[in-house]
Structure formats: structure tokens, C-alpha cells
Design brief:
With about 30 residues, this protein is mainly alpha-helical. It has one helix and no strands.
Length: about 30
């Protein structure tokens, strides 16, 4: 497992988590 693969996975999870939170709490992440 390379560091680039790990970094890409972290960025993808971060964007997915931000998207879910923005859908659940639009008043905070609007």
C-alpha cells in the first residue's frame, strides 16, 4: 500500500463525510 493510495482514500472519505453532513445538517454546512 503506497502513501498516494492512502492519501486518495482519506480525501475521498473526507469529501463523502462532508457531503453526508451537509445533507444531514444544512444549517451548519450551508
Amino acid at each position: 500500500m503506497s502513501i498516494f493510495y492512502l492519501l486518495t482514500a482519506l480525501i475521498t472519505l473526507g469529501l463523502f463525510l462532508y457531503l453526508v453532513l451537509s445533507l444531514l445538517f444544512p444549517e451548519r454546512f450551508g
